[in-house]
Amino acid sequence: MSIAFSRQPSAFKLMCIIIMPAMLSMYGLVAIVTVFMVNDLGMSESDAFLINGAASAFSTIIYAIGGYLADKVIGVKRSLIIGNLGIVVTLLLLSYAASIGSIPLAMIGIAGGGVSRALANNCPSNLISKAYNKDDNRIDSAFTLYYMMINIGSCVSLIITPIIAHKYNYAAGFSIAALWNVLTIVIYLAKRNWVKEIGSPADFEKINFRTYGLLLLGLTALTLAGSWLITHYELMQVLLVIALGVAFTFFINYMRKESKAQQKKMIVSLVLLGFSVIFFILYKQMPTSLTFFAIHNTRHEFLGIPFDPVSTQALNPFWIIILSPLLAIFYEKTSANGKGASLPLKFAVGMIFCSLAFLCLSYGAYFMADAEGRVSAFWLILTHLFQGLGELLISALGISVLAQLVPNHMIGFTLGFRTLTLGISAVIAANLAVYIAVPKSAGAVDSLQTLPVYASYFLKVGIGAFVMALLMLFTAKKLDSLIQDREQEEETVAETAN
């Protein structure tokens, strides 16, 4: 792993360093926000699931705006700083809302966090994309290693933040999440010369105070509007579909201006983004159905060691950390030997693993539960292992797909477009999870009643993922041929020019 890491450019190394505290913050919020809404704010599970999905949908709409601002208005590097400052402010507001039990302030904090992350979160991957040539064989291993660093931060946060929230309170958990973003800003400012030569055109232009003032007013207005929208799930879903349609139209218009050779690769990127939607529907089960299955139907000890059921979300990044360096080395060796699997084939294999994740959990729920309706944590461990393998083959390579298949001048916009597809996934996942939400009541949850509901749900999800995996396998060869045709055309053009 150290060899693969050392061969990367300085920009990549800096982004890997700052992404860890950023993810400690982000996944600290992810770990506790849904449970916080149920336990502290008194919401039902179904309302909490839907608000969580609506908040994800809202933030993904704003991500497209964030990508545009980074590329065309304020620059990627300024977006990184301003976005992280906004995250600090909104997390502290969320902490205060938790301390007084205010639902309106909590919604402002959640929405404001989404707006700020729209500016900040795509910036590291954007800068990494600009640090490599399209034909650089280090790029798959680079994004795999980068994904590992993301998951180191998320793993630690998903373990410690629920413990802090339960031992002290949710306000403390949100405050500590804010401090991690402060560290992100400090590290970046200290080492910003590592990325001084790369960025969007806007990074190398001066920005006046009027632009900053308009930006602040816009972010504030978006935050207030978002705090209302995320509590109106149906409207938020309609707006997301409209935003996705607009972004898709822009993407097609951009594509038409490219050469025929480039258009083929962009078509492949669209198809693979569509496949990614299915993966993220499965991934978004982590803070909803998987977490609440851990709470209601999993024994809260493993090998005699007790654990917080909310912290089982850390199993996913744990496996990512273990598997990422192995895959990064494998990618480099197979690429060097000319035996690397195509991107479409990697996506298909990843979906097979995702299918196995839910099928094995369904098996455990159906056949391995005890008399109290609870199963061993082993089944969650196995589920997250398969899910982690699928994530590395689909999500970790998702940005790599864009870096390789989309022109450099479209990277920022396309990252925002990709994030909109994640919003669709979050909305669908939230609506699916509502079917297994436990109705709000004053009494304790009966594990024997929830067990068959979860077992049936996971079985259906697993079968659906398997059907999609078959479709991806059938189309992999055709998609790869489009990529190869494009590369052959580029070589022909280059030879003609010489």
Automatic annotation (TrEMBL):
<dbReference type="InterPro" id="IPR036259">
    <property type="entry name" value="MFS_trans_sf"/>
</dbReference>
<protein>
    <recommendedName>
        <fullName>Dipeptide/tripeptide permease</fullName>
    </recommendedName>
</protein>
<keyword id="KW-0812">Transmembrane</keyword>
<feature type="transmembrane region" description="Helical">
    <location>
        <begin position="49"/>
        <end position="69"/>
    </location>
</feature>
<feature type="transmembrane region" description="Helical">
    <location>
        <begin position="457"/>
        <end position="476"/>
    </location>
</feature>
<keyword id="KW-1133">Transmembrane helix</keyword>
<keyword id="KW-0813">Transport</keyword>
<dbReference type="GO" id="GO:0005886">
    <property type="term" value="C:plasma membrane"/>
</dbReference>
<feature type="transmembrane region" description="Helical">
    <location>
        <begin position="141"/>
        <end position="164"/>
    </location>
</feature>
<feature type="transmembrane region" description="Helical">
    <location>
        <begin position="314"/>
        <end position="331"/>
    </location>
</feature>
<feature type="transmembrane region" description="Helical">
    <location>
        <begin position="415"/>
        <end position="437"/>
    </location>
</feature>
<feature type="transmembrane region" description="Helical">
    <location>
        <begin position="81"/>
        <end position="97"/>
    </location>
</feature>
<feature type="transmembrane region" description="Helical">
    <location>
        <begin position="12"/>
        <end position="37"/>
    </location>
</feature>
<dbReference type="InterPro" id="IPR005279">
    <property type="entry name" value="Dipep/tripep_permease"/>
</dbReference>
<dbReference type="GO" id="GO:1904680">
    <property type="term" value="F:peptide transmembrane transporter activity"/>
</dbReference>
<dbReference type="GO" id="GO:0015833">
    <property type="term" value="P:peptide transport"/>
</dbReference>
<keyword id="KW-1003">Cell membrane</keyword>
<keyword id="KW-0571">Peptide transport</keyword>
<feature type="transmembrane region" description="Helical">
    <location>
        <begin position="236"/>
        <end position="254"/>
    </location>
</feature>
<dbReference type="InterPro" id="IPR000109">
    <property type="entry name" value="POT_fam"/>
</dbReference>
<feature type="transmembrane region" description="Helical">
    <location>
        <begin position="211"/>
        <end position="230"/>
    </location>
</feature>
<keyword id="KW-0653">Protein transport</keyword>
<feature type="transmembrane region" description="Helical">
    <location>
        <begin position="378"/>
        <end position="403"/>
    </location>
</feature>
<feature type="transmembrane region" description="Helical">
    <location>
        <begin position="343"/>
        <end position="366"/>
    </location>
</feature>
<feature type="transmembrane region" description="Helical">
    <location>
        <begin position="170"/>
        <end position="190"/>
    </location>
</feature>
<feature type="transmembrane region" description="Helical">
    <location>
        <begin position="266"/>
        <end position="283"/>
    </location>
</feature>
<feature type="transmembrane region" description="Helical">
    <location>
        <begin position="103"/>
        <end position="120"/>
    </location>
</feature>
<keyword id="KW-0472">Membrane</keyword>
<dbReference type="InterPro" id="IPR050171">
    <property type="entry name" value="MFS_Transporters"/>
</dbReference>
<dbReference type="Pfam" id="PF00854">
    <property type="entry name" value="PTR2"/>
</dbReference>
